[in-house]
Amino acid sequence: MSKPLILVSNDDGILAPGIRALIEIVREIGEVVVVAPNKPQSGMGHAITLNSSLRCDEIQIDKGPQKEYECSGTPADCIKLGLSVILKRKPDLCISGINHGANSSINVIYSGTMSAALEGAIGGVPSIGFSLLDYSHDADFSTSKIVVKNIVNKILKEGLATGRCLNVNIPKLPFSEINGYKICRQADASWKEDFDVRKDPTGKTYYWLKGIFQNHDYGKDTDEWALANGYVSIVPVQYDITSYDFISELKSWNL
Amino acid sequence: MSKPLILVSNDDGILAPGIRALIEIVREIGEVVVVAPNKPQSGMGHAITLNSSLRCDEIQIDKGPQKEYECSGTPADCIKLGLSVILKRKPDLCISGINHGANSSINVIYSGTMSAALEGAIGGVPSIGFSLLDYSHDADFSTSKIVVKNIVNKILKEGLATGRCLNVNIPKLPFSEINGYKICRQADASWKEDFDVRKDPTGKTYYWLKGIFQNHDYGKDTDEWALANGYVSIVPVQYDITSYDFISELKSWNL
After folding, report:
1. Nearest-neighbour CA in chain B from A54: distance (Å)
2. Is B98 helix (H, G, I), strand (E, B) or coil?
3. How far, CA to CA in Å, does A248 sit from each of A243, B148, B230?
4. Does residue A192 carry a pLDDT above 80?
5. Is the distance from CB of B14 to CB of B61 less than 8 angstroms?
6. What is the tens place of the pLDDT at every residue in A229-241?
7. DSSP letters along B187-250, please?
8. Left (φ > 0), alpha (ψ -120 to 50) or beta: where does A221 sit?
C-alpha cells in the first residue's frame, strides 16, 4: 500500500517551531509536502490574494524526506497552490499548525491556521488544524506530537465527511496530565476590543489592537470548557455559515 | 426620537462607487459614520491586523453630513476601530458594501465585505453586507439603493438576533425586473482553482490565482438559485461555524 499523501501548512510561517514539530511527526506516517507562508500570517482569517501575484519556491530546511515550498501568500493561498499546482494528486489529508496559541471559540474566525484547514475542506480533502495553548516561540510540543499522531492516524482510518474539518486545540500540559479528547462546539466567547492610542514622532495618531478575552458561555460542551479542564478540544467545523435557525423568523418578515 | 446611528464600511475602499452609493441612501435614514479601508481589501476574509499598527484618519470626501475615517487596515479592523474608538455609543446598525461583485455561496468565506458585517455581529450590532452582481467600477447602483433602503428600514424596525448578520446579494437588473426577496441558505458551490504560471523578467516563476465558479447545488432554497431567478438573496449568517450534525459521529470514534 502506498503511503498517504499529506499536505502541510500553517500561519506562523514555514520556519516556526510548531510546523517543524508537525512535519517531524507526520513524515513518519506519510509522504509529506509542505506549502507554507514565508512570513508570519497570524490573524489573516480566510484572506486570499486577488490583486497581486504569488511566489511559491522550493526550499530545503532540514534533512527530512519531505518536499517544502515557501509561499508569499496567505495560509488559504498556500492550500490553493498546494492542491492545484504543487501536488500531482489529491492528498489524503491536509493539516495546518501546530499553531503557537489557541484557536478555540471565536478565534477560529480570525485564524490563518484554521483557514488553511477550512480551505482543505473546501477542496474536498479531510483536514485538521492543530493549535497549542502556548504563544511562546520555544513552546514544548511533546504533548502536541502525541495528540497529532493519534488524531492523524484516526482520520486516515475513518475519513471525514466532505466539507468538514477539525479544529483541535491542545492544553499546555504534559501528556500525563491530559484528561482525554472532548468533541465540542465552539464556545460563544469573544474579545472585548480595545486599542492603544499612540502618537508617532510627528505627533500623528496611530492605533494598536489589544483586547481582553471574555467567555460568557458556561456550557460544558464547549471547547473553552474542555481546555480549561485539561482535555484536548476537537470542534468539527464547516464552511456553510448559514444561520439555519434564523431562516423561518426572517421569512415571517414578508420583505 | 433621535436618529439611528449607522456604522458603514466596505472592502473596496472608501472611494469605491459602491460605498458612496450606500452612504447616499443611509444618510437619509440615520446619523452615519464611515470607517472604511483606504485601499481595496477584496478577498481579505476575516483578516485582522495583529503585527502592525493602524492608521485611522478623518477625511472629507463629499459635502454630506456623515463623518468619515479612512483606515489602513482590513474591513474587520475598520469595524473594531469604529466600535471601540471612533463611535461614542453602540451603533444601531452596521452595514458593509455595496460590494462590486457577488458574495453569494462560498464567496462569503473570502469576502472582506461580509467579514465587516460579521465583525459587527460579533460586536453585538445588527449587521448587513450588501453586494451587487456587477464587478465594474461604473456599475449601476439604482436597484441596490432601493433594496438597501427597504432592508435597512426593516432591520431598524425588527432588529436582528444577537450574533447574526445578513448577507444580501442583488442581481444586476433594473428594479422593475426584480422578482422579490428570497430568504435562503448559502449554496454549496465552490471555485475550481487554477493558477496562471508565469515567468518574471529574470526567468523566475510566479503565480496568479484564477478559477472557475462551479455550482453543484441544485436546491431551490439557495442564494445562487435566487440570484439566477431574479430575486435579491438574503442569507442569515453566523460566526459559530461548528458542524453540529457531525458531533455525534465524531463522538462514536472513541478517541
Report:
1. 5
2. strand
3. 10, 21, 21
4. yes
5. yes
6. 999 999 999 999 9
7. P-EEEEEEEEEEE-TTS-EEEEEEEEEEE----TTBHHHHHHTTEEEEEEEES--B-GGGHHHH
8. alpha
Residue B1 scores a pLDDT above 70: no
Identify the CA nearest to A112 among candidates A125, A95, A96.
A96
ipTM given for this complex: 0.93
Mutate to test the interface with B, among A242, A244, A247, A248 (most CBs of B within 10 A): A242
- List, for residues A135-182, the tens digit of each pLDDT value: 998 999 999 999 999 999 999 999 998 889 999 999 999 999 999 999
How many angstroms separate the CA atoms of A211 and A190, rounded?
10
| Contact predicate A36/A15, CB 8 Å | no
Report how many Cβ contacts below 8 Å link chain A to chain B: 216
Residues B63-72: tens digit of each pLDDT: 999 999 999 9
Closest approach of B25 to chain A, Cα-based (Å)? 18
Q: How far is B2 from chain A (nearest CA, A)?
A: 25
Spelled out in words, what is the top-level CATH class assigned to the domain A5-186+213-242? alpha beta
Q: Cell 481595496 identifies what position?
A: B40
Q: Which residue has the cell 475615517?
A: B69
Contacts with B, A 13-52, CB within 8 Å:
40, 42-51
Out of B43, B46, B53, whose CB is closest to A50? B43
Q: Is the Cβ pair A185, B242 closer than 8 Å?
A: yes
Mean pLDDT of chain A: 94
- Best CATH choice for the domain B5-186+213-241 from the list 3.30.200.20, 3.30.420.40, 3.40.50.970, 3.40.1210.10: 3.40.1210.10
Using a CB-CB cut-off of 8 Å, the residues of chain B touching A240 are 185-186, 188
Does residue B18 have a pLDDT over 80?
yes
